[in-house]
Amino acid sequence: MTISPALLVHMVAPPRKFRVYVLTAVVVTCFLLYQRRSLCCWLPKPRGGGPLKKPDLRFQKASFDWAAVPEHFPAQKLAQLPKRPSRKLPRVQHDFSSYRDDATTETRRRAVRGVFTRSWTSYKKLAWLHDELRPVSGEPNDPFGGWAATLVDNLDTLWIMGLEAEFYEAAAEAVQIDWNRTSESGINMFETTIRHLGGLLSAYDLSGEGALLAKAQELGDMLYKAFDTPNRMPGFWLKFEDVMNGAQVAGSNDPSASPGSLSLEFTHLAQHTGEAKYYDAVDRISQFLQRTQEESRMPGIWPTLINFHDQTVSEQVMFSLGGLADSLYEYLLKMYILLGGGEDASKYKAMYLRAMETVISHILFRPMLPDQKDVLFAGDVLVHNENGILQPDGQHLSCFLGGMFALGGKMFDVAQHVDIGARLTKGCAWAYSAFPTGLMPEIFGLLDCQKPQLAACEWDENRWRAESGQQEQQQQGLPKGFRHVRDPKYQLRPEAAESLFVMYRVTGDPAYRETAWTMFQSIVKYTETALAYSTIADVAVKGETKKTDSMESFWMAETLKYLFLIFCPPETISLDNYVLTTEAHPFRL
Question: Where in this chain does the entry annotate a coiled-coil region (predicted)?
């Protein structure tokens, strides 16, 4: 029997009063779900967005147009931006199809966001539009040109945490920054690129607000002038007067991570604007690295300091994946991802995998520990002869390696790298737990097991006492296994939290979440001030810690972002849809 649609509706339609109740319930439920969504984490929204009426962001041009400044050493031919291939990159995130949020996870997420909003509120009240807030004195601080580094660096964090009103308030200021208004005679290329340019590009990726991209390109045009040198290699500093006079030259002893960590931001700017010059600028650095990879005293990796002026790498003797070198290696992997893994990106894969061979063979070490815990660290190597001398010193800055190895292992299907990533991540977590504050020092020394294949070794009490010094051990209260703590500060750094986040997303192991929560609690307990959170002078003290009145922009832009994301549903900033810069700015793939 055939029933007409009209008759069917009449037969099944409930009474009008019931429909009103149902409609009311649906409206209330949707409102509560929206409120919950905005608190939980950012998720992609359909066109039209939520109930917030977005303000009109108006891009304001800077008072000086750097794009109009003529170049003294222009590029003769530009490398073209590679097109993304049609094939998809391998999946790197764990299969979270059965994932369900729970009350504990939401409580932790709320706690992290609460610490962020406390920090942000104090910055807004006491240091608005300055680079940083001093979290003890409440004074502003401007180490990065006075261009509101904390504000720009945290645009994407505001968006991810669902703080949309705060995001638009900050974005309205960001798009009016005048790069010509600064008391500085020059700027740090690396810091300005990763904090400001990366922050603006990421905020554009997340919000789609064109004014943010316009401001990013305006800044990119200024930063591009650093490449106006005789060999097109940028200096460590962009000095404004030298730009005008054609006096810029590349440095002869610059950190390898400085020019080596500009590629993601400049390439992504090129992807959004279609301007090949931005990609060409960093591609020349990549070509230099590719040419010289086997020419250093430790073939496969580059020295910590590089002569970019003469484009040589054979004279320097220090090799490390810690400070001054770290993000160079991270960006080899992430450039491959950003470019979609096509043929034009193959050089980045080759350089990365070759570098990791050397890192595993010569830089990584397993420490001698009382419980023989299976963890790894990255040391420094001095190469005065063919073999080199390993200095088994750990750095907080090198704690990003766990996440990098895991991400690369999944991307290139190298299971050994995922395992190494886990051992490195657990090494930094162990270093946190070893001290009374539950926090890890900036730089410290360990004892190398000196076994092949990063194998375990028996604990040798006599060796530890001899190499750490019994008197020094008593004075410093060194935990067993540590030779020294050269720099006992904790600077609110993000690298350990970063690796915990990546390891969780790659493996799905909830233990990484538990470690992150323990870490978060220790950070808050020992760094909290009356206003926000501060670097502390010594992680080894018992009781009250000495606050040094410093809160860099990466505290909210990276550390709290990673700690928030690890407790978010895994589709939030999925590693299959975004690549995160060294400053934790997600770039959409």
Answer: none
Instruction: Quickly tell me which residue has 């990421």 as its tokens.
Output: 202
Tokens matching residue 150 = 């904390």
- Threshold 0.70, pTM exceeds: yes
- Angle made by CA atoms 289, 291, 295, in degrees to the nearest 5: 90
Q: Contact 171/155 with Cβ under 8 angstroms?
A: yes
End-to-end CA distance of the chain: 53
Buried-state track 447-481, b at ≥16 Cβ within 10 A, e below 16: bebeeeeeeebeeeeeebeeebeeeebeebebbeb
CA distance 462 to 485: 19
Q: How many residues does the chain have?
A: 589
In degrees and rounded to multiples of 5, residue 116 shows phi and psi of -60, -50
In the numeric block, which tokens belong to residue 499?
Answer: 């690796």
At 202-257, the pLDDT tens digits run 999 999 999 999 999 999 999 999 999 999 999 999 999 999 999 999 999 999 99
pLDDT one-digit tens code per residue, 148-181 = 999 999 999 999 999 999 999 999 999 999 999 9
Q: Known catalytic residues?
A: 191, 326, 442, 495
Q: Establish whether 582 is an annotated binding residue.
A: yes
To 5 degrees, how large is the angle CA 347–CA 327–CA 374? 100
Q: How far apart are CA 552 and CA 535, in angstroms?
A: 9
SS3 395: strand
pLDDT, tens digit, for every residue of 494-544? Answer: 999 999 999 999 999 999 999 999 999 999 999 999 999 999 999 999 999
SS3 track for 12-36:
HCCCHHHHHHHHHHHHHHHHHHHHH
